[in-house]
Amino acid sequence: MKSGGGKLRMEPVDVMGEGRLAQCTDPQGAEFAMWQPGKTAGFGLASADNTLVWVELHVPDPAAALGFYSALFGWRHAEMQAPGMTYRVLSTADGDQQDTSFGGIAPQQGQGEPSRWTPYFNVPDVDATVAAATANGGSVVMPASDVPEVGRIAWLADPAGAVFALLKPNPQM
After folding, report:
1. pLDDT tens digits along 111-170
2. Is pLDDT above 70 for 67?
3. Beta strand residue intervals within the chain, DSSP E
4. Strands 101-107 and 85-91, sheet pairing
5. What is the dihedral of CA 19, 25, 31, 37, to 10 degrees?
6. Which among 116, 135, 93, 88 is positioned nearest to 31, based on CA atoms?
7. Whose CA is closest to 80, among 96, 97, 92?
8. What's the chain's Rg over C-alpha atoms?
9. Exposure string over 107-121, b if 16+ CB within 10 A, otherwise e
10. Given this model, what pLDDT does residue 173 score?
11. Most buried of 61, 138, 169, 172 (most Cβ within 10 A)?
12. Is 70 exceeded by the pLDDT of residue 1?
């Protein structure tokens, strides 16, 4: 990790026998953590309502980020053209590439946008979830909108400022 330009923010620590955790920062400043399973393997459920469905990395240089994470984790990618950018869909090292896709890498969209990983949560109703989040101290980063062939999305920040996204996937996806 360090040889690829990343930084270790927190040395690996045991988490009460559940696993080992380390916190890192990639060469472009996006923070992430690594988990080595112990008694707790990790996600038992994803893509169902109100669970994690996707993660997206926004950085100034997506190609460099892809090189870093591919070298670190063996991730593969497929490129697709989106309006005004090349989007890189990430998948794990093994298995069918489409079936093992879990996220993507996109260029930063605005001046001053920090490099960051953004988790997307699958929700049954984006607008209702936005209303619930704002009623409980959250804020809207990007209002709910329909993205063709993807679904309805919104970006929010929790009361501490952590950014996350909501997605009601297009049923054909």
Report:
1. 888 999 999 999 999 999 999 999 999 999 999 999 988 899 999 999 999 999 999 998
2. yes
3. 7-14, 19-25, 31-37, 51-59, 76-82, 85-91, 101-107, 116-122, 139-147, 151-157, 163-169
4. antiparallel
5. -10
6. 116
7. 97
8. 17
9. bbeeeeeebbbbebb
10. 60
11. 138
12. no
Contact between 87 and 81 under an 8 Å Cβ cutoff? The reply is yes
Edge-first strand listing for the sheet containing 31-37: 7-14, 19-25, 31-37
Spell out the residues 6+ positions from residue 103 whose beta carbon is closer than 8 angstroms to its own: 54, 55, 56, 57, 89, 90
Q: Give CA–CA dist 52/120, Å, rounded.
A: 6
Give the residue carrying structure tokens 């990343």: 6
Helix/strand/coil for 46: coil
Write the pLDDT tens digit of every residue in 2-32.
Answer: 778 999 999 999 999 999 999 999 999 999 9
Amino acid identity of 42? G
Hey, what are 39's tokens? Answer: 């008694």
CA dihedral 153, 159, 160, 163 (to 10 degrees): 0
